[in-house]
């Protein structure tokens, strides 16, 4: 095993072969014929790789009605967007659970079956998690997604009428300098996966059908292990 210093870079030869400095790059022989590894001689001269402007996480999708057991659809109806969003986040985190299991574990302070959800933050506790709240700007969503966290979001005026919960799985066209983005990608429990919600302000979205949604009343959040 050989250590060679060249141009401020220390290289380790794993193949016990001689390495020859060649101006600004170092050519490393390998056991694979025709394969060369090129390394810059001065790491300080490298330009930083910019962060991506788009992120999308591979989150399992669950429909809030179609994925209910047949014998529970009359009771639950289309009221379970909150529990469904939690179930998707749990499955992404590796929890072996289903929509109906999440529904049946949630106390009435979080979700009343057949009616509506309330304090979704506490719903994370049924599987040993806490809710990490974030802000409502593109930068807040970008940071969470970049760290590998799908974000549960509550929007108002969904379909021009009600509040709604869904899971943000991605972001497009993010600009860190202006704290703007083109859109959020969301698993909408009511319609389908990977729906595009266009940003029209720091905390306002336009849903695919055209209605303008505000982010809130609940703050966006993601799961963190207790």
From TrEMBL:
<dbReference type="InterPro" id="IPR039564">
    <property type="entry name" value="Peptidase_C39-like"/>
</dbReference>
<dbReference type="Pfam" id="PF13529">
    <property type="entry name" value="Peptidase_C39_2"/>
</dbReference>
<feature type="domain" description="Peptidase C39-like">
    <location>
        <begin position="57"/>
        <end position="189"/>
    </location>
</feature>
<protein>
    <recommendedName>
        <fullName>Peptidase C39-like domain-containing protein</fullName>
    </recommendedName>
</protein>
